[in-house]
Design goal:
Blueprint lengths: L28 H8 L3 E5 L4 E3 L7 E7 L2 E6 L5 E7 L4 E2 L1 H6 L6 E4 L3 E7 H10 L1 H27 L2 H11 L2 E4 L2 E5 L4 H7 L4 H13 L3 E3 L4 E4 L2 H8 L3
Antiparallel strand pairs: 1-8, 2-7, 3-6, 3-8, 4-5, 4-7, 9-10, 10-12, 11-12
Helix pairs in contact: 3-4, 5-8, 6-7
Protein name: CRP/FNR family transcriptional regulator
InterPro entries: cNMP-bd_dom, cNMP-bd_dom_sf, Env_Response_Regulators, HTH_CRP, RmlC-like_jellyroll, WH-like_DNA-bd_sf, WH_DNA-bd_sf
Pfam family, one: HTH_Crp_2
């Protein structure tokens, strides 16, 4: 069940949710504060659902803190993760642009908070600030390109290339041994995101470990010891 949405009150000097969102990035601080005044917050516990498949979606959902997953249920009853939303990412643009119902579930994978914009308010904001509409269109176009790239990788059947690309996309910290990254979700969820099975993902990780490209560390961290090798692997057709 999704939680009721309440009016958002931003404290002076607070971390504005909208400040993290690329579609609002072209606004000055005063305009961002004005935009934040029409946002409504929702706070989620781990595992809590904010959107159900088939439900009408009348808000644009913007991740503020934590992480949520966008997923669908396949014909055989398995969960397929479509994408992850971190701070600044958003969901619900299709409902705003076409009026369609959601085809996905949106669930927190850790404690999270979101700010939401009712479609009427979002339409008014775009009318007052056309740059929001242009940035929204650009983001949707980027997602389409990302989806096409992901589809091509799935069709190729090369799980190792998809895994390499995913690991390289994670934020990391360089040290003398290589690049340390944190796996943001469980390996079974990473397998779902990469359109493969947990068993296949484990085999590919084992191959990367055996070849010295990566090392597994404690706490869900990985050390990418040879980023160049991982890059070459990600570029394989």
């Amino acid at each position: 069940m999704s939680r009721p949405l309440l009016p958002l009150v931003e404290e002076p000097g607070s971390d504005l949710c909208v400040a993290r969102v690329p579609i609002f990035g072209g606004l000055d601080h005063a305009d961002q504060v004005a935009v934040a005044a029409v946002a409504r917050p929702v706070t989620l516990t781990k595992g809590e659902q904010v959107v159900a498949a088939g439900a009408p979606l009348r808000q644009l959902l913007v991740a503020h803190t934590g992480m949520v997953k966008v997923a669908r249920i396949t014909a055989d009853g398995h969960e397929q993760i479509v994408r992850l939303l971190g701070p600044g990412d958003f969901f619900g643009e299709s409902g705003f642009l076409t009026g369609s119902r959601s085809e996905h579930f949106v669930t927190a994978v850790e404690p999270a908070s979101m700010c939401t914009f009712h479609h009427d308010d979002l339409h008014r904001l775009i009318t007052e600030h056309p740059s929001i509409g242009w940035q929204l269109l650009r983001t949707v176009s980027d997602r389409l390109l990302e989806t096409e790239t992901r589809l091509a990788a799935v069709i190729s059947g090369d799980v190792s290339a998809r895994l390499a690309g995913y690991l390289l996309s994670l934020p990391g910290r360089h040290d003398e041994q290589g690049l340390q990254v944190q796996l943001p979700i469980a390996k079974k969820d990473i397998a779902s995101l990469l359109d493969t099975t947990p068993e296949s993902l484990s085999r590919q990780l084992r191959r990367l470990r055996d070849s010295g490209v990566v090392r597994e560390l404690a706490g869900g961290r990985l050390l990418i010891a040879d980023p160049d090798a991982l890059m070459r692997l990600s570029e394989q057709p």
